[in-house]
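User: Quick sanity check before I run a bigger batch. Here is a single chain. Can you write out its predicted 3D structure?
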Amino acid sequence: MRILFLTPYPRDSAPSQRFRFEHYYPYLERKNIVYHIEPFLDQRAWDVLYQKGKWLQKGLAILRGFLRRAMCLFRLHHYDYVFIHREASPLGPPVFEWLIAKAFKKKYIYDFDDAIWLPNASDANRFISSLKWYHKTSSVCRWAHTVSAGNDFLAAYARRFNPQVTVIPTVVNTETVYKHLKNQRTDEIVIGWTGTHSTIRFLEPLIPMLLRLCRSLRAKLLVIADRRPDIEDENFEFVKWNKATEAEDVLRMNIGIMPLADDDWSRGKCGFKAIQYMALGIPAVASPVGVNTQIIDHGINGYLCRTEEEWEHAIRTLAGDASLREKAGIAAREKICAKYSVHAWADSFIALFTQAEKL
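Assistant: Done. Predicted structure follows.
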């Protein structure tokens, strides 16, 4: 079997790719499945994508991407299946998806992990939001042979257009990268959050309370992100996200937090922050939105909080009891290993292609 992966970004760069499907590549190789990866954006484009300005470089990158996609069409006959993550091209209508499915009669598996039919763009690229063609997601789902959705909310959307939908969550490798268990017997309590500049807006409403809590508990608020937030406090520490050390950096936390807004965009999220924390034996405190309510068992491996008072109570409870953090952390890691690990979902991912042969 030969599979062509059409991805938005270069290999081993974007979290959505690394934790959705790239860690399954070795499993494909063990099954003697041959695959080829064609990113829309090359490494030069990825390096400037989220920088402000640099419109010439970004424009040229988009043109190079469209040229690569066009060239891919002439190589489709080499492959049995095409795997499309999020979209074949970031701008404009779903021309390539239509050509692959209708003109070249190739089966494609469509994978998505966000409510990408809803308008959402980073501040650095907001001016091109009108060119994104968000409503194309329904057509891309309709033409797909199979849809792989990151959670039940996304799957329900996809099933409006295609009955062949499988839920495959975003997962971590608990045997190699996320393999350690947090030592909760530490002198300092660290309350941590990890994410990107585009999601830090969910954290911002809680920052005054968190800093006040840190002063009271003599704890530290740790933020791991690609860009430093506008926070100045002696109890605050920023660590720039680094792919090589992401697990070790998260392991500094005693408590991991994941606030979200209660809206459709958040319901489309796949709970990855909570999964990261819990895989390392770190209890998660999160908003009871979307898949978070499936990942976190309230009072067992973490807490689900709506109000600021609930957030403060949960964090105080965990911060004040190392034994409770240990017990919750062990339960958290067991849950992730069983239900949100690469090992648990590798067969389901491979079945996207092997079962497609029978349909």
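The mean pLDDT is 93.

User: Great, the batch can go ahead then.
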